[in-house]
From TrEMBL:
Residue ranges occupied by any Alanine racemase N-terminal domain in the UniProt entry: 21-229
Name this protein carries in UniProt: Pyridoxal phosphate homeostasis protein
Cofactor(s) demanded: pyridoxal 5'-phosphate
Provenance organism: Microbispora triticiradicis
Family assignment from sequence similarity: Belongs to the pyridoxal phosphate-binding protein YggS/PROSC family.
SUPFAM superfamilies (UniProt xref): PLP-binding barrel
Length: 235
């Protein structure tokens, strides 16, 4: 695709505004900015945007769909990036995802744990895993029920090739995200009692950064506020 000459400036301005919001939320919560990792969610946007963001200091990139993520990870293989797979993951895509993803945020069932472990061992890799927790009864979003998280976490922790790092959730649509993120924080605390290294809380997107940070989020998944409204992906 043809890169607009002002695209770097657009991204730089958006990144500066997101950073301002994150820093403000950290101050309000009495937390250090260093405690929060910003993941740029680049779904539907080209590898050229990933390169521009990397040049602006972004080192964590998130993707929802394997085919798009695999292509971008290959196109940006020369960059020092950490790739996060954050979408619902089918077992038939696990081999591909394990080849590039450093962290999978959407682990929500035993069969997926088994597939991830098998492919990680085959690839000679160790993949960080987050238990995706469902904070509502919303259809189609994936996620284990809060009461299922401890057993699923224990399964990840004992599976060769995987490392349990914590939890992830999406705030329920149409609700105040703060109470939902408080529930996630409670689930994370219970998991951390058994697995002290599981200290990641992946929560918060473009519209709920303050609420996520106030409830202990360590990783923010920000797309629209950085890259603009979604459009069809052009390679």
């Amino acid at each position: 695709m043809t890169l607009r000459p002002d695209r770097r400036e657009e991204l730089a301005a958006a990144l500066a505004e997101v950073e301002r919001r994150v820093e403000e939320a950290c101050r309000a919560a009495g937390r250090s900015r260093a405690e929060v990792t910003l993941i740029a969610v680049t779904k539907t946007y080209p590898a050229s945007d990933v390169r521009l963001l990397a040049g602006l200091g972004v080192s964590h990139v998130g993707e929802n769909r394997d085919q798009e993520a695999a292509d971008k990870a290959a196109a940006c293989a020369d960059l020092d990036l950490t790739w996060h797979f954050i979408g619902q993951l089918q077992t038939n895509k696990v081999r591909s995802v394990v080849a590039y993803a450093h962290m999978v945020h959407s682990v929500d069932r035993p069969r997926l744990v088994e597939a991830l472990g098998r492919e990680a061992v085959r690839a000679g890799r160790e993949v960080d895993c987050l238990i995706q927790v469902s904070l509502d009864e919303g259809a189609g979003r994936g996620g284990a029920r809060p009461e299922e998280a401890p057993a699923l976490g224990a399964l990840v922790a004992k599976t060769e090739g995987l490392r349990l790092r914590g939890v992830m959730a999406v705030a329920p649509l149409g609700e105040d995200p703060a109470p939902a993120f408080a529930r996630l924080r409670a689930v994370a605390g219970r998991l951390r009692e058994e697995h002290p290294g599981a200290d990641v809380i992946s929560a918060g997107m473009s519209g709920d950064i303050p609420q996520a940070i106030a409830n202990g989020a360590t990783h923010l998944r920000v797309g629209t506020a950085l890259l603009g409204r979604r459009k069809p992906f052009v390679r």
